[in-house]
Amino acid sequence: MHLLLHIHILLIFFQLLTCSLPAQPDPVVFTRISGDSYGIPEMNINDMLQDRDGFVWFATRKGLIRYDGYEMKTYWHHPGDTNSISSNRLRALAEDEEGYLWLGTTNDGLSRFDKEKEVFTNFFHDPQDSTSLCASEVTDLIVDSRDRVWVGTSNGLDRLDSRTGAIIHYR
Length: 171
Fold this sequence. Notes:
Layout: H1 2-19, H2 35-38, E1 45-50, E2 56-60, E3 63-67, E4 72-75, E5 90-95, E6 101-105, E7 110-114, E8 119-123, E9 138-143, E10 148-153, E11 156-161, E12 167-170
Antiparallel strand pairs: 1-2, 2-3, 3-4, 5-6, 6-7, 7-8, 9-10, 10-11, 11-12
């Protein structure tokens, strides 16, 4: 009789335990973001990155797009404005330890974006300057653990020191 009471108590315990557990987790809900409703100038995205602040950045052929979870903001090249992005045709994105966003373009070098000031610093290829990028076409970007920006170009690999701006070529 004593054993039956213990079994009965265990059965009630397990029944209560399983009643409190959900049968299935809550479903994940996806929201489709269309260009028309969010003001996205280009739906062909070449690269994307979520930064340390949670913003999602998109490199497109028509500029840089920042998505904060609610709205899109687009950054474009403005001819004559040296503080704007060097080109609208973007291919690659990376973020360094300081929080700067690095942008590789398909034809106008590299841009560094200061998100606090909303200012771009541009790095170009100059055939007359051996300390400039080795090509205008940037194909890929990565920032290593020592905060150096590695720039893949159509003419070789460059390493840029993000603090000094010095460029070393690897061909």
